[in-house]
From TrEMBL:
Keyword field: Carboxypeptidase, Disulfide bond, Hydrolase, Metal-binding, Metalloprotease, Protease, Signal, Zinc
Protein name: Peptidase M14 domain-containing protein
Organism from which the protein derives: Blomia tropicalis
Cofactor: Zn(2+)
Domain Peptidase M14: 118-406
Lineage: Eukaryota, Metazoa, Ecdysozoa, Arthropoda, Chelicerata
Keyword Metal-binding applies: yes
Gene Ontology terms describing biological process: proteolysis
Entry superkingdom: Eukaryota
Family statement drawn from the similarity comment of this UniProt entry: Belongs to the peptidase M14 family.
Length: 407
């Protein structure tokens, strides 16, 4: 019965979510959390965020084949849930229509590019990043990270001339669109905000707006909820590995799966995914000068530091905590939202093979964060475009607070 529909994609037809419900589950006790984790396995669900003891809501799509059984199981366990939408396709269509309308508007490129009210597709992002570099050669250089599995360019901008390097990694998980909006916005902000010019004399920012380009394209063409890369796994019908479980740091230990059909599949070997490998090469290129690394994800409103592979804390945990607290308080001041800080394993879950753990242990990046942007589970990955502006502003406030403390 249950298939791993989210991970499978033998057909390249767009996923039709018309009869799929989007539901929001509200665990009220640790017993509910336990039940939900059991049901996730039993029904092979893709929870957008795992059920955790913080008792935050869990969003998930329920396909028509599982619906009756899964909802009955929730009811039997007395776990409250609400139907957000009876037709998830309608939400996807609405998001796309808004995006297309925005990009059709006259002169929506260059100077008139809309960073704050609209999501963009890969071609628009690529053109815009090149435009920024071409129009501000004194501040920025277009320097791609390398190619993806399907041969596309991974865009990046190097902004500023300082000795110390700050890396902003966005969109390693392709469905986390708000992070990709942040990447574009922050590149533009750094280049065009004259008040930041002194910062660019001290630092060199490397902004990667979308690392998992193939997956991102797939979220536009085929499945809005695609998270992984798009490399095939021989012997299976499943595609992609989780590029944030694929780094050579405690590879495929706890919090990663060796099942190619899992959303957290670690890949056939460490750095089997060229996207992770190319990003690691970029980090190595600046090894010794990296002042801070930010891996930007969504969603959950968390500001986290190493480690993901262990509950133990890194030697400079106190420093990382202080910096995280500064970030969280700046975010609160920005638009009033509360973020939680702590180490990855202690704040959400064990996750081995992640970029910041590798940067910390292997590339000597002692100030590294994994940030989960808004929200806490109301819209999840489908954060409405009218929240892009506050989301990117508060994220920048957090990043800036860290940098101010470093200087
Ligand atoms: Zn993510």
């Amino acid at each position: 019965m249950a298939t791993l529909s989210m991970s499978m994609s033998i057909h390249e037809e767009p996923m039709d979510f018309s009869n799929h419900k989007l539901i929001r589950i509200h665990p009220r006790s640790t017993e509910h959390v336990k039940q939900l984790n059991r049901l996730e396995k039993e029904f092979q669900m893709d929870y957008w965020r795992p059920a955790l003891n913080d008792l935050r809501p869990v969003l998930t799509i329920v396909d028509p084949y599982k619906e009756q059984y899964f909802l009955r199981a929730l009811n039997n366990s007395k776990i409250f849930h609400e139907i957000v939408s009876n037709n998830f396709q309608r939400i996807v269509d609405k998001e796309r229509a808004e995006m297309e309308m925005a990009s059709r508007q006259l002169n929506a490129k260059g100077e008139n590019y809309d960073y704050e009210n609209s999501y963009h597709n890969y071609e628009e992002i690529l053109d815009q990043m090149k435009y920024l570099a071409n129009n501000h050669p004194e501040k920025a250089k277009y320097q791609p990270v390398g190619k993806t599995y399907e041969g596309r360019e991974i865009p990046a901008l190097v902004i500023g001339s300082g000795e110390k390097v700050i890396i902003l990694e966005n969109g390693i998980h392709s469905r986390e669109w708000i992070t990709i909006a942040f990447g574009q916005w922050v590149a533009n902000k750094l280049i065009t905000d004259v008040s930041l010019e002194p910062l660019l004399e001290n630092y060199r920012f490397i902004v990667v707006p979308v690392l998992n380009v193939d997956g991102f394209i797939y979220t536009h063409t085929t499945n809005r909820l695609w998270r992984k890369t798009r490399s095939p796994s021989p012997g299976t019908n499943c595609f992609g590995a989780d590029p944030n479980r694929n780094w050579d740091s405690h590879f495929c230990e706890q919090g990663a799966s060796n099942n190619p059909c899992s959303e957290t599949y670690c890949g056939s070997s460490a750095f089997s995914e060229i996207e992770s490998k190319n990003m690691a090469n970029l980090i190595n290129q600046y090894k010794g000068s990296i002042a801070a690394y930010f891996a930007v994800h969504s969603y959950s409103q968390l500001w986290m530091y190493p480690f993901g592979y262990s509950y133990s804390l890194p030697p400079n945990a106190q420093q990382l905590k202080t910096l995280s607290q500064a970030a969280v308080s700046a975010i609160k001041k920005s638009h009033g939202l509360s973020f939680t800080e702590g180490s990855i394993a202690n704040t959400i879950y064990l996750a081995s093979g992640s970029s910041i753990d590798w940067a910390y242990d292997s590339a000597d990046v002692k100030v590294a964060f994994a940030v989960e942007l808004r929200d806490k589970g109301l819209y999840g990955f489908q954060l409405p475009a009218n929240q892009i502006k506050p989301a990117v502003e508060e994220t920048w406030a957090g990043v800036k607070a860290v940098i101010d403390q470093l200087s």
